[in-house]
Amino acid sequence: MALGKTGAQSCDSSPPMILLGVWALAGAEQCIVGRVRGHVVCVLYLQLQWTCSLCGSIYAQERCTRSQPPCNSTSAVFQAEAKAAVEDGSGEAHIWFSCPVISGLLGLATPQWEGLQRSLRVRGHLRVYTRGRSLVCDVDAEDPLLRYLSCVCSSSAVCRPLTLICTLHTHSHTPAARRQDSAQLKRFTRGDREFVTRITPPLQLTCTHILEEGG
To answer: What is the pLDDT of residues 134-148, one digit of tens each?
Structure first.
């Protein structure tokens, strides 16, 4: 897999394909924008909400929920964000997705994505997150919408190979030596043998485009 040219300028013109393990160690010294080809392991966090277009409060049941002072807005904007764990064999990254690319992450066609937005209008807000091997939220675990999202997020339509254009988070711009120092020693046992390896903390990225889906 070619790494391409390094440096922020080359990333701006043509993002290089880069291994997560290489990017984690080199940080911004490698590039700020890059193409990542990896496998979505799981969805760590997903938030969907309608917000008032005037004050930004949650908009539910066709009205703004702000009470002090009351807001009489009659319009709302749909917002969404998600975070997924992605691996490529060389390292792991936690990648944030914003509203324009979340439907691609979830593998939802436009009618499905729009239907999901409509189904959220009564509640106005839903936040789900990973706990162990399950996707949970702060509402009833038997809630139909939660069960639907749990099925979607754990399906092969989401947990699949993807090629993404990503940007490095500002706080991840640390020198290579410091990133190596932050790596933690992990102990693994396989049968009667014990192994110790150094694990670098997951790279923190934001996805701006999903280039392709599939292998």
So the answer is: 666 766 667 788 888
**Per-residue DSSP letters for 139-201?**
S-TT-HHHHHHHHHHTSTTTSSEEEEEEEE-GGG---HHHHHHH-EEEEEEETTEEEEEEEPP
Tokens of 154: 């754990």
CA distance 11 to 165: 10
Asked if residue 157 is part of any domain, the answer here is: yes
**Containing domain of residue 52, as a range?**
8-213
* DSSP H/E element including 20: helix 20-26
Residue 18 has what pLDDT? 92
Tokens of 77: 């904007």
Is 29 inside any structural domain?
Answer: yes
Task: Report the distance separating Cα 48 and Cα 175, nearest Å.
Answer: 35
In this structure, is residue 1 part of a structural domain? no
Residue 3 inside a domain? The answer is no
* Count of domains for the chain: 1
